[in-house]
Amino acid sequence: MKAQRYCAYQDRCHQEVRYRLIQWGVYGDDLENILIDLIQERFLDEERYARSFARGKFRMKQWGRQRIVRELKKRDISEYCIRAGLAEIEEEEYLQTLHELLSRKKERLDTNLTAFECRQLLIRHGLSKGFEMDLVQQVAFQVVQ
Question: 1-45, pLDDT tens digit by residue?
């Protein structure tokens, strides 16, 4: 079945599969029955999707928790699955990644900036990646000193 191959290639959320089925011209009860079959046969699993999404976006794109949550909510993932996905991110690794991210950014900044301007740019960068304000501020102060 085409839908099974589509789901087997990589983890997909229900919304992605529903959209793809509609593109393939599947509507109504047929669409719902295919989704039910995919769920029962474990081709579709939103918790597994949320876990792999969170792991991947954190490790590969260095996204923070807030960005990951925002993207998962866009895909209509349940709160339970979002919490399960965030549980995949170790706190120590999270802080280490943020520190490395801001340190690399600091190296690329203009050397004529004041400490205040440098911190502001680092904070803005950390927030744009989806990290929490309090953590970004703490790490930015450590990196600039």
Answer: 899 999 999 999 999 999 999 999 999 999 999 999 999 999 999
HSE at residue 54, side-chain half, CA atoms within 13 A, is 24
HSE at residue 90, side-chain half, CA atoms within 13 A, is 5
DSSP for 19-72, written as a single string: HHHHHTT--HHHHHHHHHHHHHTTS--HHHHHHHHHHHHHHHH---HHHHHHHH
Percent over 70 (pLDDT), the chain: 100
Question: Side chain identity at 76, as an amino acid letter?
Answer: D
Q: How many angstroms separate the CA atoms of 77 and 50, rounded?
A: 8
Cα atoms in the Cβ-side hemisphere of radius 13 Å centred on 51: 8
C-alpha angle 100/101/104, rounded to 5°?
80
Ordered by start, the domain boundaries in the chain are: 2-40, 46-86, 91-144
